[in-house]
Amino acid sequence: MNRKKRKNKDKERMPMPPPQSSPPNASAPLMVSQVPAPAKADFHSQSPTFVIEEYKRLCAEIDSYDKESTNCVNYSIAATAAFWAWWVTAPHWIVTSPFLLIPAVLTLVWLLRWASFQTSMAGIGKYLQESEAMFLPKTHGWETHLRKVKNRSLMASKGRWAAVYFTILILANLAIAAAVFILAPKEDPSHAKAVKTAAESLISAMTDHVQKSAAQPVANPPQALPATPAPDSSKP
After folding, report:
1. Comparing C-alpha atoms, which of 140, 129, 135 is closest to residue 44?
2. Is residue 226 part of a domain?
3. According to the model, what pLDDT value does residue 32 have?
4. What is the pLDDT of residues 151-197, one digit of tens each?
5. Cβ neighbours of residue 159 closer than 8 Å, sequence gap 6 or more
6. Total domains present in the chain
7. Fewest Cβ atoms nearer than 10 Å: which of 154, 184, 197, 223?
8. 66 CB contacts (<8 Å, ≥6 apart)?
9. How confident is the model at residue 99 (pLDDT cuts 50, 70, 90)?
10. Could you tell me if residue 40 is inside a domain?
11. In this structure, which long-range contacts are made by residues 84-90, counting pairs with CB atoms below 8 Å and at least 24 apart in sequence?
12. What is the DSSP letter of 21?
């Protein structure tokens, strides 16, 4: 009896095997949690190629902005020279006119356009410098080197020289306009009005004379002379 009781107790202590699950039905739809996740792209293996292509495109954009900035400088010179050349060849122009400020205003417009290009290039250069720091040592990279050179010397900064040039050109145009306004002889408004009145009176008098001459009839029109008889050749 004792042996049977021990066997029964051993059976109770033994763990029960887990119930076998029925095989899944192939026709049953899969749950969202059972759908296998797609394989993730290896970003680290593709990032160098992406950064290189982006670097090329941004460098090309900086190059185009740099050319436009140079055009702004050239256009400001051409506009200033063209205006003052026209003014020299047209001395009859009223020198007290506010049109003398046109060169300074045009130079200011080109300065603002140049500043917008410089701001865009600075933003792109800062981003490229961060990209260089990800793949190159701290002392390497063109943007990193260029920023160090710009901060160290004015001679190496083309942008600063252009800003100095625009400032000098605006001040020179204002100085020339002020000198012309002060020193050049001014037109007398009363004299110009008197000349205009005399010209209008002369034109009116000539017009009235022509109209009267055309309307007046001829008083004594010329009469035809009597015909002279021809001499008779039959008389002795």
Report:
1. 135
2. no
3. 46
4. 555 445 667 788 888 999 999 999 988 887 777 655 555 544 554 56
5. 69, 118, 150
6. 1
7. 223
8. 117, 121
9. confident
10. no
11. 84/176, 87/180
12. P
Single-letter amino acid, residue 180: V
Predicted local confidence at residue 44, as pLDDT: 47
Q: What is the C-alpha to C-alpha distance for residues 180 and 203, in angstroms, rounded to an integer?
A: 35
Question: Residue 58, exposed/middle/buried by CB under 10 A (0-12, 13-18, 19+)?
Answer: middle
Scanning the structure block, which residue is given the tokens 């990279």? 141
For residue 73, what are the contacts with CB-CB under 8 A and spacing of at least 6?
A: 110, 114, 162, 165, 166
Q: Is 156 helix (H, G, I), strand (E, B) or coil?
A: coil
- Cα dist from 44 to 40, 48, 53, 85, 135, whole Å: 11, 8, 15, 62, 12
Average pLDDT over residues 136-151: 68
Structural domain contains residue 51? no
Please report, for the chain, how many H helices and E strands are present, in that order: 6, 0
In a domain, 143, yes or no: yes
Q: Is the pTM of this model over 0.70?
A: no
